[in-house]
Amino acid sequence: MKRAVKHRSYFQGFLFLTLALSIFxxxxxxxxxxxxxKLISTDWLKTNLGADNVRIVDVRSNVAxxxxxxxxxxxxxxxxxxxxxxxxxxVMLMPPEALAIMLGKMGISQKTSVIVYTEKGDFKAAxxxxxxxxxxxxxxxxxEGGFGKWQAEGNPVTQDYPKITATQYGRPxxxxxxxxxxxxxxxxxxxxxxxLILDVRPVELYxxxxxxxxxxxxxxxSLSRFWGEDLKEDGTWKSRDELKAAYAKLGGxxxxxxxxxxxxxxxxxxxxxxxKYLLGYKSVKNYDGSFNEWSNIPELPIETGMK
Length: 307
Hints:
Blueprint: H1 2-28, E1 39-40, H2 42-47, E2 54-58, H3 63-68, E3 75-76, E4 83-86, E5 89-93, H4 96-105, E6 113-117, H5 124-134, E7 140-143, H6 146-152, H7 183-192, E8 196-199, H8 203-207, E9 218-219, E10 223-224, H9 240-249, E11 258-261, H10 267-278, E12 284-286, H11 290-294, E13 302-303
Parallel strand pairs: 1-7, 2-3, 2-6, 6-7, 8-10, 8-11, 11-12
Antiparallel strand pairs: 4-5, 9-13
Helix pairs in contact: 5-10
């Protein structure tokens, strides 16, 4: 009997140790399946700071903001660093091979889970997530509310640079063309239909009242929905019910193909993220050439004013 009690005590101790180690591990690493969601909460990130195989990326516009303070472990990546002129068209997404080199310099491999944040109520984090989607990266997410929410909650901030070992990202082998619209594809839809085109720029750019392009206005047939209307004052998204109703008024539905456009593909990436990951739209493409490309081709039709 005493021997049985002793063995039970050893067994219970072993179970306790195993449970304790599993709890510790859950806070120190992310599962093989990746992040829990495409939209990461500040609470989750605070609990999982320093998690294995996770890279936090700060894409705020001004590096001075990063110097002043950033989330511990975050590496800085200027949002324009991944864009260049493509056949004369400015600010297009750089070739996948070049993006892969830059990711490797940040210690990101194809198996790394990437969490991106920017300023409060901004769209640049979604642009990097969209670019990662395009090259087939398995696990990435946006930090909801960005650095503004993180700091407002009193979460830890540092001025220290992370200690990163560069790696080889590897050549992207299969591009996901189902998330990126080409000029030819948009031209065909304008001529023949087949998808809803949303212009997510501020209204005065859509109507043609303002703009620095050679021609002002919007792609013929596109509808206006400013990307910022999807967010609340604190930079977090409005409820899914609100968003669902807003896009339904424009003729949107999860089963209906949508192409999102703006001036240069960044604002539209935010709406891409909203439709694809928050509302579950099955076919959403970001036209990153956007009005930047379209407006400079004289034979392509544009319109002004509101529909």
